[in-house]
UniProtKB/TrEMBL annotation:
InterPro entries: ABC2_TM (IPR013525), ABC2_TM_bact-type (IPR047817), ABC_2_transport (IPR000412), Nod_factor_ABC_transporter (IPR051784). PANTHER family: NODULATION PROTEIN J (PTHR43229:SF2). This is Transport permease protein. Belongs to the ABC-2 integral membrane protein family. It is a multi-pass membrane protein. It comes from the Bacteria. It is found in: Cell membrane; Membrane. Keywords: Antibiotic resistance, Cell membrane, Membrane, Transmembrane, Transmembrane helix, Transport. Residues 27-263 form the ABC transmembrane type-2 domain. Pfam families: ABC2_membrane (PF01061). The chain crosses the membrane at residues 28-52, 59-80, 111-132, 139-163, 238-257.
């Protein structure tokens, strides 16, 4: 068996183990499935009447999807930190298994959870009137952008989980930076409605790029809420979304692997 095939097989075994653990964890299931539904209903109906009703709900869904996938990186954070503290990583060290397999298995299992959360969010969106207005190919590309983004975010979560001193600290560290990042974006309101400094941050926020790209591919742009700022990230949202996700992977994969080797050597 080649090295790549062994990493794939071992990574799949780790991913399957993690998915079985998620299935038995009620709080994880709640966070992955119920939480995005609550956000869709809360923002769609509580604020939707003020911001545009049914049109705003279509505009909103791309933001909820990206927010959900970003928050799901906390599964990687908590999962890795818990495995470290409970000695699971130590047991894996006694097996002929590379650290790459462990990390790949962790991120793939959390990507599977993100897929479920994404499907549930889309179904909820369909129930409240959201529709894909673009072509089938555009919709497929939109979901591909979302999956690559979710995979990239899981590697950020992996690094945080590996360097956190405890699962409790990991949970806080995995979420505290995401809340401002998701709200200072075009997920809920256009960047143009924000004051100067926040507007610039929102325009260059990678989440904004993914949201704008997905929103455009779904055909969910809304008159009055469309991005017309003329900045480079807004004018090249799809390219910036791909670039941001790939850059995150390129930076955080080696950092996470180095952190894994450091904690595994203790």
């Amino acid at each position: 068996m080649t090295a790549v095939a062994k990493v794939a097989v071992d990574g799949w075994m780790i991913a399957w183990r993690n998915l079985l653990h998620v299935r038995r964890s009620v709080d994880w299931a709640f966070a992955a499935v119920v939480q995005p539904v609550m956000f869709v209903l809360l923002f769609g109906f509580v604020f939707g009447g003020l911001l545009g009703g049914a049109a705003y709900r279509e505009y909103l869904l791309a933001g909820i999807l990206v927010q959900t996938l970003a928050f799901n990186s906390a599964f990687t954070v908590i999962g890795l930190s818990t495995d470290l503290r409970k000695g699971f990583i130590d047991r894996l060290r006694s097996l002929p298994m590379s650290g790459v397999s462990v990390m790949v298995g962790r991120t793939l299992s959390d990507l599977a959870v993100s897929v479920v959360a994404m499907l549930v969010t889309c179904l909820c969106g369909l129930l409240i009137g959201w529709r894909v207005r673009g072509s089938v190919l555009d919709a497929v590309l939109a979901f591909l952008v979302l999956l690559v983004f979710a995979f990239a975010m899981s590697w950020i979560g992996a690094l945080i989980g590996l360097v956190s001193p405890s699962p409790e600290a990991a949970q806080s560290a995995g979420l505290i930076w995401l809340t401002p990042l998701t709200f200072v974006s075009s997920g809920f309101v256009p960047e143009e409605s924000m004051p100067g400094p926040l507007r610039v941050i929102a325009e260059w926020n990678p989440l904004t790029a993914v949201i704008n790209a997905v929103r455009g591919l779904f055909g969910n742009t809304v008159p009055g809420l469309d991005v017309v700022s003329g900045s480079w990230p807004d004018d090249h949202a799809l390219a910036y979304a791909w670039l941001s996700s790939l850059l995150i992977v390129a930076v955080f994969v080696p950092l996470s692997m180095r952190a894994y080797r450091r904690v595994a050597a203790r």
